[in-house]
Amino acid sequence: MEILEFSLFVLFPAALAIFALGASYRLFRYVFLYRKGVYIHRDSSFAFKIKSLVLSFLRPTSFNLRTKPMEFVFGFMLMHAIGLIPLIFLLAQHIAYIEAIIPFYGLLWPLAIPISPITGALTVTSPVGVKQVETLWGPLTIVLNGDFLAIFAILGATYKSFAKIYERFKGHKNVRIGDLLIWPLLLAVLITGWLAAHHTPSGDIVWYRTMLGLHIAFAALFVAVWPFTKFFHFLWGYWYGKLHEWYDMAIKRGV
Amino acid sequence: MPVSIPNLDSVTLHYFENCMGCAACAPSCPYYYVDKHYAPVEKAEFLREILRKKYTISGRLAGRLVGAKLPKSEEDFKKLMVFAYRCANCGRCYTTCPYGIDSGAMVNRLRQVLSSAGYAPTLLRQLSAMEKEGGYVAAARKIWEDFLNTAQAPVEKKSARVLLMVSLGDILISRQAVLDAVTVLKSVGEDFTLPGRPLGVFPPVGYTLGDLEAARAVVAEIVKYVESLSPQIVVILNGCYTYSYFRFEATNILRRKFGFKLLHISELLAEYLKSGRLKLKKLGIKVVLQDSCQLARRGGVVEEPRRVLEACADVLDVKHSGRDVECLGGGAGIGILSRQISDELVKALGATVASSDWERQFLEKLERDYEKATAKRIKILKDVDADVVVALCPFALEALKRGGVEAEHFVSFVAKALW
Ligand code: SF4
Ligand code: SF4
User: Fold this and answer.
1) Which segments constitute the 4Fe-4S ferredoxin-type domain (chain B) (predicted)?
2) Which of B199, B202, B248 is nearest to B225 (CA)?
3) With CB atoms 3.0 to 4.6 Å apart as the test, which of A159, A244, B78, B239 could cross-link to B392 if both were Cys?
4) Å from B251 to nearest chain A CA?
């Protein structure tokens, strides 16, 4: 079996199963460890509660921009906001693939992002023929396309990798062993994806299928380790953390 | 020595496992400007190492390789002491963290581990023991009687509307402010009472060193005493952790709600002002308000002190105020360990400050770091063209005065504006 088929039909389903088990384990721990507290909440208006909810999410971003602009540009903007998030969830090829597993994901088609700024073709090699990505983004696809987003994300991830190595070298404890493993994995997913999309290093179909196979294999590894690494923050830690902080600070203390 | 490791609940689990190590929190901490290794995440990481060893399979199997380890040697514990006592639990890193990780709470849990192994500043340990066993009451009898004689106010009056919760610490470092609070209560004709004895030293001191059992006992004892007097409102003068602890933690610790309402003095004065009971004259003084982290950020008391001050002074703006206030670094017991305050405690209670050469050096270094941590905020406050900085937290007030700032306690300032 060639690597593309192996990745698509063996690795990825296995990764999804590991992901489902791991994610359930992590989420259930929160349920089982929940302890109800006895508190006297400070009264506050509905408008205050909504405003503070929004601010809980916004405040760290503006603080980061003011205090660590490099981190903000590379770590938050390039890597997250205009890098990985749209790339993973909205790239047309990804929507097509995820839709095959989770049908309602196809609702995101209007937001799909084409793979390159030059063509909106979704696929030219598939037996279904050429399909065009029709999106709402219009001229924005000059920037909002797989090529650019991947470059942004690669720049962000490279910056973060070097920053982590530098911090580790300086003896800072916030760099953990997991960082030194997951950043290369993320870069491997991004770079193989970019190479496959560009039919590089060779236009030959075997090379293309190999590179795409590697991309999916690395993505499968990413999905499998997702619940056991800091990658899980996107699905859980971030949302739980901010909502808990909002409850603790705004609802309970009225701050 | 065996250590007791905190149990995991869902919130501690979140603080433990969802920190990304991004260090976005670092610039929020006053101690980060003393040494980059005092960033909130790095201090909390020492606890994570301990938790990993106990609660993760990888930590148990691979130990240090995956950043999991328990402190074992005396050197290990001493190193942890340094990091654990570079946090004022001000909560700023909590709100600047993109993931809502409360590193201050983690550092407090680190202190719990240390305390369980017998590592805590001697002074805090002694004060906590005195508070728990009540020894401070007899030791400070003369000081208390002297205070009552000066205050000339009702004492231990049952069912008064307001009980002014005065601690020994309040009398030792903010005596004039307590007397001024009494003056204000008299001037508005409040039905109030003082307690028959000081309520704690800086209650609960046990919280500062991570001795939860002592903290619980002190809270239970004070609440029992207060309930025996049946006031409707208990008013706290101390704008540091005593307020936030009694207002937001005590009910959870005792697992029940109380029969009284808890207010900070600034909240009560704001109520008087609103109802027209408190009449203040304009003093023609430009002031800047140094909010208290525990009152504003961890307590939600932001507008009340402002409203009261605005009625009697020109309140100037200063950056990073209200809920975003920059900490002066003296919370969570660090202020108690500072020289000015510890000297007072030694004089009043005969307490010992340090029990070894190592501890003496530890405290001297802490004092220097505390001063450096204070410097950034003091510069910002000095740059505002104010006549006086008004503070709500007794430790902040001491730090400001030490830094050469003209500073005054909120209550004392307001008392000067009484008609
Ligand atoms: S505590 Fe929050 S801001 Fe600090 S390193 Fe961890 S995730 Fe980042
Ligand atoms: S709670 Fe305050 S003092 Fe403690 S680590 Fe966070 S910012 Fe620093």
Assistant:
1) 9-39, 78-109
2) B199
3) B239
4) 6
Inter-chain residue contact A255 with B23, CB threshold 8 Å = no
Residue of chain B whose alpha carbon sits nearest to that of A59: B96
φ, ψ of residue A105 to 5 degrees: the values are: -60, -25
Q: Closest by alpha carbon to B327, among B282, B257, B393? A: B393
As assigned by CATH, the class of the B286-328+354-416 domain is: alpha beta
How many angstroms separate the alpha carbon of residue B406 from the centre of ligand 1? 36
Q: What confidence category does residue A186 fall into, taking pLDDT thresholds of 50, 70 and 90?
A: very high
| CB of residue B21 inside a 6 A radius of ligand 1 | yes
CB contact under 8 A, B98 and A67: no
Percent of chain B with pLDDT over 90: 97
Q: pTM surpassing 0.80?
A: yes
Closest to B9 (Cβ–Cβ): which among A33, A167, A252?
A33
Contact B21 A179 (CB under 8 A): yes
| Spatial separation of the C-alpha atoms in residues B202 and A119, rounded to whole Å | 70
Where are the CATH 1.10.1060 domain residues in chain B?
10-119
Q: CA of A4 to nearest chain B CA: how many angstroms apart?
A: 32
At A181 the pLDDT is 85
- Write out the DSSP string of A171-223: T-TT--HHHHHHHHHHHHHHHHHHHHHTT-S---HHHHHHHHHHHHHHHHHHH
- Does ligand 2 come within 6 angstroms of the Cβ of B53? no
User: pLDDT, tens digit, for every residue of A111-161?
Assistant: 999 988 877 666 555 555 556 777 788 888 888 999 999 999 999 999 999
Fold classified for B10-119 = Fumarate Reductase Iron-sulfur Protein; Chain B, domain 2 (1.10.1060)
Please indicate whether, in this complex, the C-beta atoms of B21 and A176 are within 8 angstroms of each other: yes
| Distance from residue B21's CA to the centre of ligand 1 (Å) | 5
